[in-house]
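Tokenise the fold.
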Amino acid sequence: MEKHSHLKRGLVLLLLLVLVAGGLVFANRIMAGDAFTKEEAQHGLYGLWVYRDVQGLDWPAFWHDTQRQMIWPFLHSWILAVFFFIFGVGYVTARSLSLVIFFASLYLVYLISLKTSFKNGPRIGMIAVILGLTSPLMLRFASENMIEGFGALLFLAAAYTYTLCEEKKITLEYFILAFLISLSIFTNYIYAYIMIVAFLIVTLAKLGPILMEAMQLSRKGEKSAVRFVWWAYRKMIVLGFLLVLLGSWFSFSFSRKVLLLVQTVFKYSGGEQVVGLGQNLLYYPQAVIEYLSFSPWVGALLLVSLVVPFVTVRYHGTNRLYIYVWTALVLATVTLQAKLPQMIYIIIPFVFIIFAAVFSCLFENLLQKNKRALSFVLIIIIVPIFYSLPSAYAMFFPNIPAENMVQVLNYFEKTVPAGASMVIPFNMQRLNQEVAQFHFRERKGSLLTEPGILQSGLSTGGDYYLTVALDDGSYYQKDVSDDSLSRWNEWLLSRLMEGQVRLFSNRRFASAGLTAKIYQKTSL
């Protein structure tokens, strides 16, 4: 009874910790967040298109907007559109979906941890959830309108379902498993590639022991085919259902979709391009240390836990987790040309569970055999973490500028006369074509964002020309993607000197280190 009461108190404290951490993320990173980044805005526009199509009952447009999402397929945009219907269209709604996905992922982390050990599963789950709550990478994608969190949620759901499949001799779970795996192809090609290969390896790893058992039984003269046939039957269910769902996606625009899949997975398509065998091999181990935890020391321990699979002897449920993690690491290192920490985001929860299992196993052994050594190990683990506590604090209480790009965009929207056309042809991380289209979604009047204005002069029909002038130390200097902003400002200055445009309005955003300017065509 005492043990159960301790467990209940621990779960209550864990739930409170999750709620407090989630509340801080919502208040300080979502509600107080800046404008979308370019990629966030692209996902936001996809959801906005679907939302408007369904709102207007325009099913041909809905089908068109679904099918044209090929680099990032449509599933996230469908779910985002549902959120827009419930909570309204906006930055906060879109990013709140990621926070909900984050909460669901932590819940599955806890459930999978329970399956690793009947006795110590709750302890493993608590440690893994706390690691997730203090992971800079996980908190980032819990507060941004991105698809990484959804990819991780699908992998976790499929892994948990696979665990249920191995425990029960019924087929319904296998249909669910195939469905969850296939959903990855409608989310992100790279994640689908990793998931499908990982589950294929897990399945083949299960085949080895079955064949060995069959051989031993055959030597004794006993029938051995039943278990193998049952294993093959259930796997064929998964394979067949998976092929049907994948075929439904690739049945339209087959050539283009296959080409995009190959290019996304096997060719360089953004991110860091790492040169050299040594740098390739070290990239993701270094990413584990630097990005998975607020403390590099904890990150190093996470990496060490991935190369000590002795824990699988104590906690048999962890063997599949090692396969998931190492499959992703090997594929990301050897076959993916682009290198980014988020390429392995979908396995981060599994890394936390593995570390928690290793720690729990070590804790239990030392508690029984050498309590003095246990105290020494805990000191070694915990003391260095204190040096990184400011980093943990900054994750939940970030330094928020008093002014940001949302206020700049609001200034543009309120100052330019209603119905007038606006021109924004430059490319910054938080002020570009996609961000402008999402922010000005309800505004009447055309929005011209193509860079051709620099060549075509004033013949595009634009009435007002929007720009920003950045200070040398501006917070937004890091958002400058190319030279389009400087070329645009030079073009406007030359037209100002020629009398073709005049300065209509300007406003200083001192804390952001920029001045927003609105030029008007003089013929107006």
User: Anything to note?
Assistant: The first helix runs from residue 2 to 31. The chain has a mean pLDDT of 85.
